[in-house]
Queue: 2 jobs
Job 1
Amino acid sequence: MYYGVAFAIFVTMGLAMVRALLGPTVYDRVLAVNTFGTKTALLLAVIAFLYGRQDFLDLALAYALINFIGVLAVLAFFQNRRTDKSNTHEE
Amino acid sequence: MAGVIDGLSWLLLLIGGGFVLIGGIGTLRLPNFYTRMHAASLTDSMATLLILSGIMLQAGWSLATIKLFAILVFLLLTGPTASYALANAALLSGMKPEETGRTVGDKASAS
Amino acid sequence: MIVVSGVFLLTLLAIIAVAIVRTENLFVAVMLTSIFSLLMAANFFILDAADVALTEAAVGAGVTTVIFLSALSLTAERERSLTRERHLAIFVVIVTALVLIYATFDKPRLGDPQAPVHLHVAPWYLEKTPELIGIPNVVTAVLGSFRGYDTLGEVFVVFTACIGVLFLLGSKRDPESAVSESLPGSAGLSHHLIPKVVSRLLVPFIVLFGLYVQFHGEYGPGGGFQAGAIVASGIILYALIEGEAAALAAVPRAALMGMVVGGAMLYGLVGLAGLALGGNFLDYSVLLSDPLAGQQLGILLIEAGVGVTVCGALLLIFHAFAARELA
């Protein structure tokens, strides 16, 4: 059963990555990175159980944390650049 | 009793995996940033809840369950916050939730 | 299962790497680098290397992204376009790549059980760790005790990097810190109520989790480097939310310099204590009457030194970039 969930999470990580590559605006990419990070944390929890190594759950917690801080950092950075409107729609 | 717990955890994991896939497909296929935001954040929270509950049922009463509970609380707290901050930043920077014009109904309805 | 997921992750990695090189918007490149780090960490995790995965995630996806973003705010957001072709550069890269690939032909295959490292070195470490050191996590035993010299070098490399960044960016902004209160960037995200409340709840738990990882390094994945990065991330979160001036008031620069210097010195002093008590440099067995307990005490102290130095260095580098931005 864990294999099925791990497979589903892998596929979603791939889809989120496509969105990160495609996304016309910056916010699409940030959304994709956030989703990617959360799914990685879930994947780690599932695989930690698959392997039977339950002390690896610390990693899932650390990843969830890092993802949150990364997204907030991007937004704080973006707020400082908000005065420059041309940054929000590019490519 | 063990069979019931196993079956329940199997069911939770299955539905959680389904939500994850739906969220991924939604993030890719929906037309607008705000709609993708819906797909990503809602399915994220639900999938986290279901998958981690499913694993917790398998772990029984042990240290692993407490750690999983901590991860669950953390993800449920920070996921919606990050989504809110992202949507707020997008809105404040001027991105409008526009009508795509694909709906069959009248265009006079407010966006 | 491992092979399939490994191949899948490595394919995604290759796609992301190509995308990072091809995009000309540096902000996009930073976001994709963050995904690259997460992918690499997942890859390490699947290969059962938990300590490395934790370090890669904490340092690569967390702190490095923040520092790249701070650096980006000082420069332009788009890459300068190429004005001439770079044939010589491509030629050098291709020749170097071919030489490296040729050099790997002599290496044993990855994971080959007949490789010398798996026949001689690894079994020795696995055998000797319970009897000489007595802690369950062999990686920490190798890092802290068997290869303690290398880790001493690593700590001093982190220290030197921090000093190098401080030389380049300088930190003589204190007289103008009163001015920075009026600039919009210094307020952080403080007018967003929800992230502010949630982050204030979380910062103490993040620091606590960092301490847990630090002291748990002997029993599970963890150790000084990861813990330093996690605690630094927590304080960086505080700086992002409340503004950089508030973070400097909470943990002032002098304290950070003290941490960086103190951690490295602690490591050196533990080594010298081994000398003073009659053993070799960095021999922990002589620290206490029971050699096993001495080893464990030695590893505890040096991991503390590593964690403190890494945390101080990352925060000093972050503040060096962030302070520059406000000027």
Note: The mean pLDDT of chain A is 81.
Job 2
Amino acid sequence: MGEARRFTGDVAELDLEAGNVMQLFRKLGERFPELKPILEDGFAVAIDGEMYEDSLLQPIKPGAEVILIPKIAGG
Amino acid sequence: MPDDVKSAEIKEFKYVGKRNVRPDGVDKVTGRAKYGADLILPGMLYGRVLRSPHAHARIKSIDISDALKLAGVKAIVTRDDFKDLPKAQPPFGPMIHDAADTTRNIIAREKALYDGHAVAAVAATSETIAKKALKLIKVDYEVLPHVIDPVEAMKDDAPILHEDQFTVGVEPKPTKPSNVFRVMKAEKGDLDKGFAEADIVIERDFKTAAVHQGYIEPHACVANASEDGTAELWCTTQGQFNFRAVCAAVLGMPVGKLKVVSSEIGGGFGGKLPVYGEPLAIRLSQKAHRPVKMVMTRDEVFRATGPTSGSHVHIKIGATKDGRITAAEAVLKYQAGAFKGAGLAAAIGCMYSQYDLENIRIVGYDICVNRPKVAAYRAPGVPMAAFGAEGVINEIATKLGIDPVDLRLKNAAKQGSVNVSGIKYGPIGFIEMLERVKAHPHYNAALGKNQGRGFAAGYWMHAGGMSCATLNVQDDGTVNLLEGNPDIGGSRASMAAMVAEELGIPYEKVRPMIADTSSLGFTLFTAGSRVTYATGMAVIEATRNAIKVCCDRAAAIWGVTAEQVKWEEGHAKPASANVGDFAPISLAELAKKAPMMGGPIAGHAEINATGQGPAIGAHLVDVETDPETGFVKLLRYTVFQDVGRAISPDYVEGQMQGGAVQGLGWALNEEYIYNDKGQLQNAGFLDYRMPVASDVPMIDTVMIEEPNPNHPYGVRGVGETPIVPPQAAVINAVENSVGVRLSELPMSPPKLLKAIETARALAAE
């Protein structure tokens, strides 16, 4: 979604190696320093279509598609 | 039942899915239930808040000296009693947590930013004395120009609420402060290509008013601080753990020194997620060394607590002549109230997400205005956007001569569809739902003169998150269940049903209770339609852990291994005939033996629930419009919703009906009315007109159960989706009844009558 792309110079897709969500966020933060402070608090991930929020230890299998999704609150 | 059985696949259960008696029912109908205002403590004082009468004013000074001298006044707090907290700095995530804003909303510092903004608070020996004391507090205001409409607030010459706010999300970075906090965007595919492929393109503007959640119970709390630095807070809240965190931060106290106990709650809908008077009550209690009760009046609730955003919404949708939507665009301008943070991320993520679309672009503006800070209201941010989107989709259906449900079928999301956020759907029941709509008697019933039928669909994505649960088996075989979510929608009944189902014991033997913050691990708020899903998963895991203990105990009694024991219908049994000829042992028998076999039997779980899925609904409404008065009578209403699995059907139906009623009030009557000074004129239920039982017909419900495979019982969150479709459905029905289309809510009789008369005059020319 557009919210993350604001901090990636509009890069929408990239290949990264990461064994879990924490490693993914770390690598994204190194690559895009402006994104780093808001990743953990601001984004959930969909790993091959399944939603994970606040799940830094969630494993990511090789070849998985991971999407950054803004966290939303409810009422 | 065994862990390897996928409960989501089993259709018939003993307690899950049944209409069990609610555990809180007797207390609620007899008046015994204890709500936020019901606690009385020895020596308790009464707190009242002085509120700004100005929509926008600099606070030059506050003099409390005369008020302090009044007999019976024991403490007064102002901005000087609260430390300023750090302001959030960019980059900003999608959800905003700004401690500086929070503390300023609780009590004004430099400026009063809305009529009703708290400026000081008094604790006295009676309400009467506290109110007298408020009148003795002298506040020197420098009144400033104000702005209450988001589009007006965007203009270059608009009064600026925050001189240090520069719009985020635009290039080049602005140098002038703005009321626009930020611009958010989401895109998928190629919008221009999509519009080029369309045979029909419709573009419309819509406007919605801010509306309040309208919970029956006002905000209320009792704070009791001790000289050892600890404090207890009893309050009506949607999240005692979240309240603890915020109050501790605002008060500068360690989280572990504050205990928050949630009372029964008389409605929340998102409006009881923010903290308001609670830190004031705690600070007053600290200063007075006595408990302090604070209960808002209805006037205060309207003036000073968050409604949902008012909005200006621009929609542009293109479709081929056979009804396939090729492009969908939206511009959302939402008022955030006095501080940043309107529900844009949810609106953007949900407004088109029930459809399988290739080309989408949505831009959202988060705009500060001189009104109370908005709070969540059932699917926050989505109903306004959906009102516009579904309105245009209905118009496309009409212009193409396609049945509106058929047009949805042509574009319906299904398993494998990907929405604008990139989420790929698992199994969802939207297509089945639409087919059920077409087959329903309501859809095909005849209509009379000035009667019309309307249809709309809606999408919401419910939450997961942290939940804890502890289950203790008592020595008589009954079960105490401790979980951490205030019960707004019947969650205790659903938890008890799931525990009873897992254990195979009667539902009546399970006693669900809501823990305070000292008794259980952190549990995320009751919101986001998460509780039956997420806390349900914790409760099931806790129960299965207790069952493991039971099996271990039975194994020890029989001299076999735990793997040779199974749990079935409330009893430990040999897993097969080979294990031996042992009589089943009941939970009660194991509980009786527990002291001699290692201690009480319990199970607990601390989880972060994931795997939540979409929650989609569709509404059908028949109305009769009086062309002489503009009055809209609701004749018939049916709510269709994919509920996953209804653990407690009574409650799920109640959620579907309740959300629909709130959406109807939003569509037909509710709005804030301000005078030219930015002061609220209708701060009460007489003039802020919400639907009552006599305004609505019996709302029928059709539950589609397409289980979420990620939950042991297939649950989907249900509470919020039903507020998304009603507005567009009603507008559509009114248009079909009298041929007039409105694009502004509320569609109150004077507005509708004017539109009818205008249309009549045009037709006569």
Note: Residues 2-70 of chain A form a domain with the Ubiquitin-like (UB roll) fold (CATH 3.10.20.30).
